[in-house]
Amino acid sequence: MKFLLLMGAVGCLALAACGSGETETSSWDQVASFGAVSVDPDGGQPEIEPPNRPPPEELKSRDLVVGSGQAARRGDEVVVYYVGVEYKSGRVMARTWLPRKPLAFPLGTGGWDKTWEEGIEGMRAGGLRELVVPEAFPDGPTLDFVVKMVRVGN
């Protein structure tokens, strides 16, 4: 399952790169920055396996599931579940998935981490996105998050 998810991501990136006419980053660099993510089809907490490479120096994000609801914009109240693991070890550092206590905050108003907010801006309700956040706190480790956008708006 994990292999299929990773291979599917590689295939999607390869197709997206063909004929886009835009400047592109190597699809290997885009995919290889991320660990393998196992998504629970019943909505449980995803599992993140750390990649075997150095962490990126800037925010990296990828959609695992594109939601069908409203897109999150600055000023919107958002409600999310997340799990964050240490990039190198895979050790869980923070989460709201278990015990099912979502986080609600106004996006882009400084109510949460600026880089993290940048990573979820534009997510649609129902979506699932992976964020790799270098030094998520001063002199801290790089963290790998999976975020589920539960709701956008009041």
List descriptors.
single chain, 154 residues, alpha+beta, Chitinase A, domain 3, 6-stranded antiparallel β-sheet
In brief:
The chain is an alpha+beta fold. The chain is built from three helices and eight strands; from the N terminus they run H-H-E-E-E-E-E-E-H-E-E.
Distance between termini?
A: 36 Å
Largest sheet: 6 strands, antiparallel
Give average pLDDT, whole number: 79
- State the CATH class: Alpha Beta
Number of strands: 8
Give Rg in angstroms: 15 Å
Sketch the topology as an H/E string, one letter per element. Answer: HHEEEEEEHEE
How many domains would you count in the coordinates? 1
Describe, in plain words, how this protein is organized in 3D.
- With 154 residues, the chain is an alpha+beta fold.
- It is built from three helices and eight strands; from the N terminus they run H-H-E-E-E-E-E-E-H-E-E.
- Strands 3, 4, 5, 6, 7 and 8 form a six-stranded antiparallel beta sheet that branches. Strands 1-2 form a two-stranded antiparallel ribbon.
- The protein is globular and about 40 Å long.
- The chain starts with a helix and ends with a strand.
